[in-house]
């Protein structure tokens, strides 16, 4: 198979994956969830989060009793509920602006600024930590809506599996490199730093990385005039955007295969995202691993993910992205089952699980993005990707809600992790029913040679 090089604009587009992956890995996946959990436990129990005693107290949140160990999952759930209202408006606006790259970069820089403020979450101030996580997740998700929509402008249908997979691979590499630096910082703790200060500096580094490397796509991506935008009434951009959103929601039933994919993706990606969010907490609180061990394990996921994304891209070129995603979901089911039986404080099985997650993680997500791009009517790219992004990484809500509730009811993370299997089963069953070629034709797009 001849290797096709990406053009300069496509390479610039790759680098937003490189930029934002620092937020997802260092903050979203590894450090912030257990750190915020420790801050919440300190507020609820009156001792530091790495104390050996087990916290059984609860926080009072708007008059409700919330387990400190479940707080971060409820916070992510709240962010996603809010995003259900915010992201479609962002998408509708993005379809009408003259410069998608400027909108994407502005959202990214705003998110990075909010993430930088996480450095100031200390003591028992879980309220500040929770609020910053909600806002940063919203800015992150909004920027990805625009970023994903740009894929359709820079790549032809037959290129998108390859381009999307390369972007994901570069993202895993970039996020992994920064995480490696943070691993050294948290492990060595130079200059007499405490573990807490090392974690806070690592959070700040991720925000700076996100902001700085966003300059590359901002400078390298070309502006294109909106095309095929649905005419709607309204004098302002906001009025026209709301009008387009309401029209799209009404017309979505005319694209049943697109709607079926969105529902399937909602389920299986919620499972994926909850595994990502819960991995560090599960390893810390349930399996008893130190922070440095968790970071090293996530590093394995990151660097294996580079290979996994590229392998899945090549496999999709042979058998189609639809079938490749289904195979990936089968592996995810095995991952969840294996995770349930992991013995505490046994590093080798934990590392085996990390390798399995790395192989399948980037591939399923990269191909899902490329596959969905084929199912979107022309001129509605950003808006449809806003619906897609509501289910995307970092904004899952059904999975985190189930995980948090099961943990609160059982006081154990094992049944909570096993409960996630239902998301992969339901999502896979719905995806199996989808007629990929029919969906592409319904959307008015040219089908690639292999779907």
Automatic annotation (TrEMBL):
Matching Pfam families: ATG22 (PF11700)
TM region positions: 12-33, 71-94, 106-126, 132-155, 167-185, 197-218, 259-282, 294-312, 324-342, 348-372, 412-432
Subcellular location: Cell membrane
Domain Major facilitator superfamily (MFS) profile: 257-451
InterPro entries assigned: Atg22-like, ATG22/LtaA_families, MFS_dom, MFS_trans_sf
Record GO terms (molecular function): transmembrane transporter activity
Domain of life: Bacteria
GO cellular component: plasma membrane
Alphabetical UniProt keywords: Membrane, Transmembrane, Transmembrane helix, Transport
Membrane topology, record value: Multi-pass membrane protein
The name this protein goes by in its record: MFS transporter
Organism: Aeromicrobium ginsengisoli
Lineage summary: Bacteria, Bacillati, Actinomycetota, Actinomycetes, Propionibacteriales
